[in-house]
Amino acid sequence: MTAFVRNQWYVAAYAHEVGRELLGRTVLGEPILLYRTEDGRAVGLADRCVHRRFPLSEHPSRLEGDKVVCGYHGFTYGTDGVCVRVPGQTRVPRTARLATYPVVEQDSFVWVWIGDREPGDTLPPRAPWLDSPHYTTVCGMEPIEGDYGLLVDNLLDLSHETYLHGGYIGTPEVAETPITTEVDDKSAIVRVSRHMDDAECPPFYANSTGIQGRITRWQDIEYHAPALYLLHSRVAPVGTPAPRPDGSDPDAFHVEVVYGITPSTEKSTYDFWAVARDFALDDQEVTEYLRSSNHTVVMQDVVALNALQRALDTEKPGYQELSINIDTGGLAARRILARLAAENSPQAAAR
Amino acid sequence: MTAFVRNQWYVAAYAHEVGRELLGRTVLGEPILLYRTEDGRAVGLADRCVHRRFPLSEHPSRLEGDKVVCGYHGFTYGTDGVCVRVPGQTRVPRTARLATYPVVEQDSFVWVWIGDREPGDTLPPRAPWLDSPHYTTVCGMEPIEGDYGLLVDNLLDLSHETYLHGGYIGTPEVAETPITTEVDDKSAIVRVSRHMDDAECPPFYANSTGIQGRITRWQDIEYHAPALYLLHSRVAPVGTPAPRPDGSDPDAFHVEVVYGITPSTEKSTYDFWAVARDFALDDQEVTEYLRSSNHTVVMQDVVALNALQRALDTEKPGYQELSINIDTGGLAARRILARLAAENSPQAAAR
Amino acid sequence: MTAFVRNQWYVAAYAHEVGRELLGRTVLGEPILLYRTEDGRAVGLADRCVHRRFPLSEHPSRLEGDKVVCGYHGFTYGTDGVCVRVPGQTRVPRTARLATYPVVEQDSFVWVWIGDREPGDTLPPRAPWLDSPHYTTVCGMEPIEGDYGLLVDNLLDLSHETYLHGGYIGTPEVAETPITTEVDDKSAIVRVSRHMDDAECPPFYANSTGIQGRITRWQDIEYHAPALYLLHSRVAPVGTPAPRPDGSDPDAFHVEVVYGITPSTEKSTYDFWAVARDFALDDQEVTEYLRSSNHTVVMQDVVALNALQRALDTEKPGYQELSINIDTGGLAARRILARLAAENSPQAAAR
């Protein structure tokens, strides 16, 4: 099992999921209650009543203004976690207080900070396309019944597109084209690039861009361990000029594929996925095509990773894997995750 | 997990459930076979054939007169547990004998004794209303996927009615009104009383009694640890005279709410519930209303306690609860259960 | 739990199940991939890609000629298990190789060898009736959620037919008639015989043979531990001459009941069952009757053994069984299995 990395921001929900209904999510094994105050601020509290541990996200718990009322015995909490009412007596015990979770809304995500330290000035990594007016985005979340490390492996090695996602986003060139990998240990970023100069155009891009014929296709991965994965995808007909020195690239199509990778329990993971494009911004048909198509692709991963987890669950201890060049990025990610996990373990915090 | 208390009577079934079909129930982890002889006596035997441990309550095991025939190889047992026939030979091994369970039928329940000692003269506690001609009763049983201690906690603290059962039996006054608690350690009885002098009448009582307007509402709990819970409920329009010195109380409505709390396994419980009333005895509409309404209330508890058990299953060891005044009865019950469990453990028996 | 016996042949599938679709079966806890080459040879390989342990039997893994292509990243293997292609590079690591399983097709079964040693000249035991032109066979496979030892117990003691399979193959005489048992420790064969000279004819035989009235019924069991069970069943009207000295027996009906007993995991078993008859060879109605009737009988066993396993799962350690004469064969089988398991354990192999 891939160790959890504490003292980090994780995507707990999309902003549109957090509202005036109580929402429960479990992040790194911690049950978290999410809701929005009447003036629109997202709140994160421990999702267990201090009295008898009833989940505050469970029916019939409810909001009363900005306060949360436990559905079992009516213990009532403010947004600061402090209990303000208990049944049958006027005195509220001083220790009646829920843990609070730092929350940041950014780029359409609600991020929560999980850790022993405070985040201080640390902000979550960025995915600005997701709520930019220059992009149109489709998104969703699918739970995976597997270790989050399996999703990290999956996304760092896109050669699997050719096999698992053939007919959607995979073509032979993805698996055939070598990658380059750069590891920034200090920033905990792994970059994996695959530039295909003359490749088949898979349906996902042919149907959304209208390109007929072969393409140059660039996949530039930027994994901000542990929680955010970006895939900068550039697609253009063969012969299209390269991006200009000023960075502009008016003749190519750009898709920003974003994953929030959120470990829930040791063997379950929230897979937040988003696809932002800089073309056909108002074309609803393209929007629906990409939503449906990418959902299919994500479900292919979910089914495969669930099967893989079940297979690993029956492996004898000490089983072996065999890694090759395509795994350079994934192995670097594993090393960074192991280091970050060790540095941020409760034991490390205690020293 | 709440320890099991051995050397006690537990409700294994309603009398009407025990007949000429074989019935299997697991009480304190012990699988028990229940049936009724041709002349109407309830029998309790170990529910595992001595041969290969096949459950005698499982199809196609069957009764042959008063004898039980195992559905696998035909080992046949009398009501005393003694094996009287085995296949392929005339000699029956002397040791072929099922454990028997003392059984008492009382107050519409079939009680079984679980323990190392014999019950002697000890009888189960009483709930005479359930088969009294002066009361009309509705009842049922719902399994809970949770520790029986969660149900004890639930029933000893009725402030939860306001929140979990709002719109059925809960009103604001239940949570607001302080309780008085009396603990009889010797008899292992906990009494919790809440007398509301001027309270809203919840639909459960308004619709069954026809009272319009506010009520005095008394809740007098009597918990006979570990297995029987009684709630003496008195409801009357505000201004109704108090009960007379001789105990009669002709102007009020009385409901006796009875729970048989039967631990099945470490994380499952049989919740036997009954509601007996002393008014509108022959009014079928009231009967059906109370049956349906109380079933809804019980299921609200079941859903909440199942959720609570799942939440507790993921708690880290050493998690904390916070108790307040309303928990006085529940905490007393826990202490009594812990003491009884220790006094009656197999280890204690061995000393 | 009954220990696994390694260095043995086990039925992994029927020949007709192994074709150009990838088939996954787990035998003695080992995941095995089965398929057939273009020229018809059955192949058995480890069902886990060496790269990231993805199951090769899982969609979208596929055959490419005689090679298996992993559905996750395209690792490609020949029938000898050697990897011949990996994504993104031309060099294939030398160690990229799947374990292969010796496979024999015999008597309509695909047998695989599970063990540390090679099978050498050892062949699986025979059940020649299953693909003989002188017999007509119906067959199937049902998974049991139980220890394979429960199925061995079940089949070695047919007195259960009277109780579990009454109305199908059981009559009172089966349970009443004593057995004779012979144990050949060296060959690991247990023989149990029950000859009923004057017995009721159960529907299974009455409807298939057309016999009206009472029968002589012989049941001669031959259990080749651990994997193959044969029941030679002879049925004839009372008064029919005995088999002739030369072994021919033209006036009786013969049914060969064959079970492949294949442990899958510690608590799951493949129950391969077949019924071959030497009469009414072309009578489709008899064929369908026997298929349906025997499937019902097998499912009665499956339901009972699943229930038995669940019951045993909750037994306290050290629970007792009580054995009688009918268990002689089953107990002998257990002893042989325990000895074979010990002799063939990985620890024994290491000495």
From TrEMBL, chains A, B, C:
<dbReference type="InterPro" id="IPR050584">
    <property type="entry name" value="Cholesterol_7-desaturase"/>
</dbReference>
<dbReference type="GO" id="GO:0004497">
    <property type="term" value="F:monooxygenase activity"/>
</dbReference>
<keyword id="KW-0479">Metal-binding</keyword>
<dbReference type="GO" id="GO:0051537">
    <property type="term" value="F:2 iron, 2 sulfur cluster binding"/>
</dbReference>
<dbReference type="InterPro" id="IPR017941">
    <property type="entry name" value="Rieske_2Fe-2S"/>
</dbReference>
<keyword id="KW-0411">Iron-sulfur</keyword>
<dbReference type="InterPro" id="IPR036922">
    <property type="entry name" value="Rieske_2Fe-2S_sf"/>
</dbReference>
<keyword id="KW-0560">Oxidoreductase</keyword>
<dbReference type="Pfam" id="PF19112">
    <property type="entry name" value="VanA_C"/>
</dbReference>
<dbReference type="GO" id="GO:0016705">
    <property type="term" value="F:oxidoreductase activity, acting on paired donors, with incorporation or reduction of molecular oxygen"/>
</dbReference>
<keyword id="KW-0408">Iron</keyword>
<keyword id="KW-0001">2Fe-2S</keyword>
<protein>
    <submittedName>
        <fullName>Oxidoreductase subunit alpha</fullName>
    </submittedName>
</protein>
<dbReference type="InterPro" id="IPR044043">
    <property type="entry name" value="VanA_C_cat"/>
</dbReference>
<dbReference type="GO" id="GO:0046872">
    <property type="term" value="F:metal ion binding"/>
</dbReference>
<feature type="domain" description="Rieske">
    <location>
        <begin position="9"/>
        <end position="112"/>
    </location>
</feature>
<dbReference type="Pfam" id="PF00355">
    <property type="entry name" value="Rieske"/>
</dbReference>
